[in-house]
Specification:
Alpha-Beta Plaits, alpha+beta, 4-stranded antiparallel sheet, 3 helices
Length: 101
């Protein structure tokens, strides 16, 4: 199964963003339970999550682009309008695909 990357940029203030984090974390736990192996975080060099350019990244497995896009659109941060986002399929060259994360 290929890796996908969701890059996101915050659109709302910290209080509004933080109010959605519990639902976002529950969503990530469900992705883990379903075998998508999510790895999620925010850019450490930013102060807070609502500053200019603040954002984050999600790495996850999905069977194909359509499935990846459908999954991403169920993220509470997206559904609540907290982030803008783009999606990429990540072609891993190292380590060999059998040795991925």
């Amino acid at each position: 199964m290929p890796w996908f990357v969701k890059l996101e940029t915050g659109l709302v203030g910290k209080a509004q963003f933080d109010a959605v984090i519990p639902a976002h974390l529950a969503w990530l736990a469900e992705l883990e339970r379903l075998g998508h192996r999510p790895r999620s975080g925010y850019w450490a060099e930013r102060v807070g999550r609502s500053g200019d350019g603040a954002g984050g990244m999600l790495l996850f497995f999905a069977p194909n682009w359509a499935a990846a896009e459908a999954l991403v659109q169920t993220d509470p941060l997206i559904q609540e309008g907290c982030v803008s986002w783009c999606l990429h399929e990540w072609a891993v060259v190292f380590p060999q695909p059998d040795d991925q994360l």
